[in-house]
Amino acid sequence: MFRFAHPHLLWLLAVVPPMVIFYIYTRIRRRRLLKQYGNPEIINNLMPGVATGKLKLKFYLQILALICMIFALAGPQFGSKLETVKKKGVEVMICLDVSNSMLAKDIAPNRLEKSKQILSRLVDQMKDDKVGLIVFAGDAFTQLPITNDYVSAKMFLSSINPKMVSSQGTAIGDAINLAVRSFTPNEASEKAIVVITDGENHEGNAPEAAKNALAKGIKVNVIGVGSAQGAPVPDDSGRQNSFRKDKSGNVVVTKLNEEMAQEIAAAGEGIYVRADNTNGAQKAIIDAVNNMNKTELESRVYSDYDEKYQWFIWAALIILVINIFILDRKNNVLSKIKIFEK
Predict the structure, then answer these.
(1) For 160, phi and psi rounded to 5 degrees?
(2) pLDDT surpasses 50 at 334
(3) pTM of the model
(4) Mind listing the pLDDT tens digit for each residue in 152-176?
(5) Burial 161-195 (b: 16+ CB within 10 A, else e)
(6) Positive or negative torsion for Cα 325, 328, 329, 335
(7) How far, in Å, are 117, 304, 315 from residue 17 at the CA level?
(8) Distance in Å from the first CA to the final CA of the chain
(9) Is 52's pLDDT higher than 70?
């Protein structure tokens, strides 16, 4: 296969035709001016050293060198093949709580945005690892299948909001079970689950799900988001200091269920860390992932095209060197050699 890396630069070739046309015009005009002084054949005999053919050759060689340089700038590339690339890494499935309680602002700017910031930094630290994303509230859904496309991971992460899951609740167990099924089948790499939640409205089966994950060699780490004092949950009105209320008219206050979060982490033999307004949780979870044993992950990618611009640069240089050694005047020694005359 063949292509140009910068095909838009081929528009520079548009300068070649005007240059050739201008050169032809000047040649015609020169002949007309010579005719004003007399018979061109007689005038040419008065200038025996002038080699008009060499002047033409030098011009066309210069044009050819210019074309070669333009092709070189456009970046000609040849060939592409499918090859198997092996990289060492781990697999991490992220389970992010998107229930309404995650909008509480006991952590700035709020629990959900703080969680997204932590996870974004985690993705930034990944190199050859694979990452997937699950969102959950009353139900759990795969937002991003396991992949090494970090750009897509951060794009999906930035777009997460509580409206993505209609049913409210905190189905941590369902999220963990879905994460276990979402890892690459038959992959020998070390795997881990990172759950980030406030633990509110917990449905009770999360520690058991964490134990089942551990039985398959998958550790479950938990980041608790929120404070023990809690904070009111904003409503859907969008007005400042407007909060959700229960059936009795009381403002709903959400608190971090730290005891439950720790129980889940203990069942999955992972770490538990509480997120606050510092970067402690972020550093702890990044360290936990970096300390996992890196094993070979296999993925199929297309290799880059081979750069061949050097060919055109060498061609242009050779042409210009030849052009330098072509003199404007006739060579007296060579002109005396008459190969075809008796």
Answers:
(1) -70, 140
(2) no
(3) 0.63
(4) 899 998 889 888 877 777 889 999 9
(5) ebeebeebbbbbbbbbbbbbebbbeeeebbbbbbb
(6) positive
(7) 57, 34, 21
(8) 55
(9) no
Cβ neighbors of 154 (< 8 A, separation 6 or more) are: 120, 123
The token pair that represents 236 in the structure block:
């859907």
Mean pLDDT of 88-106: 91
pLDDT at 247 > cutoff 80 = no
In the 8-state DSSP scheme, what is residue 120?
Answer: H
Tokens in use for 57?
A: 């050759």
Nearest alpha carbon to residue 329 among 53, 69, 67, 136: 53
CB 75 within 8 A of CB 305: no
- DSSP annotation of 292: S
CA distance 86 to 92: 18
What is the rounded distance in angstroms from the CA atom of residue 128 to the CA atom of residue 118?
19
Q: Is 118 exposed, middle or buried (0-12, 13-18, 19+ CB in 10 A)?
A: buried
270-311: pLDDT as tens digits = 999 998 888 888 899 999 988 888 887 666 555 667 788 899
Residue-wise pLDDT tens digits, 214-245:
999 999 999 999 888 888 888 876 677 777 78
